[in-house]
Design goal:
By secondary structure, this protein is of the alpha/beta class. Helix content is 34%, strand content 13%.
């Protein structure tokens, strides 16, 4: 019988601990080797600071934000599915975009065609439709950066029942699952892609292939089969 999907918490280490080790502790050639192994290959990892030593705000404030620090404990340890991370991947000259939504426990990915309609109202409606196809048991929260496209988060919560939590500015590792998935998505849609010219069927084909791809973190199961099993257990 195929091994049941489970999470052994004694065998897990947080992404924050891994990043801290890679960027802080090693020196010389070892550090360069470890950074090279990261998907993004960033040489540094730090927040931007303003003149008074406080994190620099690079985007306009969003009203009534809930910080990522206020999210439920179950989100951090991934023991309970239904908690998502979201972002936009921008097209050429930032004129177009697609939305990327990734479930933290199963790595199940939803790609949301947006084209030129990437304003807050359009993104809210598109994300609401995307989550409307899922059982509510696996659509509980959404972690997002402080992009203005999520400024209608309160209405999004009313529409979906999903609470939105916002990551700190300049802290992409707080949405590490989404960031890593965006790297995979870029293999399909490299920088310079004009998303208004990409057929929806091509975007959805990329989504299907991502969810049909065995993942080491899932013990080489596919996101599709893991999330489908969870949905079946909820029925």
């Amino acid at each position: 019988m195929q091994e049941e999907y489970s999470l052994d918490m004694t065998m897990r280490i947080s992404h924050e601990a891994i990043y801290r080790y890679i960027y802080v502790l090693p020196r010389g050639s070892l550090k360069q080797t470890l950074i090279k192994a990261l998907r993004q290959e960033r040489a540094y990892r730090r927040k931007k600071y303003g003149r008074k030593g406080k994190p620099e705000e690079t985007r306009g404030k969003i009203a009534d934000m809930l910080s990522i620090e206020e999210r439920p404990a179950e989100v951090e340890d991934r023991t309970v599915p239904g908690h998502w991370e979201g972002d936009l991947i921008m097209g050429k000259h930032k004129r177009t975009a697609i939305g990327t939504l990734v479930e933290r426990t199963t790595r199940y990915t939803i790609l949301v065609p947006l084209g030129k309609s990437k304003d807050a109202s359009s993104v809210r409606q598109a994300y609401t439709r995307a989550f409307g196809t899922l059982p509510k048991e696996i659509a509980k929260t959404l972690i997002y950066d402080q992009g203005k496209e999520m400024s209608e988060h309160k209405q999004f919560t009313i529409d979906t029942g999903m609470q939105v939590y916002f990551a700190h500015p300049g802290s992409p590792w707080e949405r590490g699952t989404n960031e890593n998935t965006n790297g995979l998505i870029r293999q399909y849609f490299p920088k310079g892609t004009e998303f208004d010219k990409v057929p929806i069927r091509e975007i959805k084909r990329a989504q299907r292939e991502l969810n049909d791809r065995p993942r080491a973190v899932l013990r080489y199961k596919k996101p599709d089969e893991v999330i489908n099993k969870l949905v079946a257990l909820k029925v």
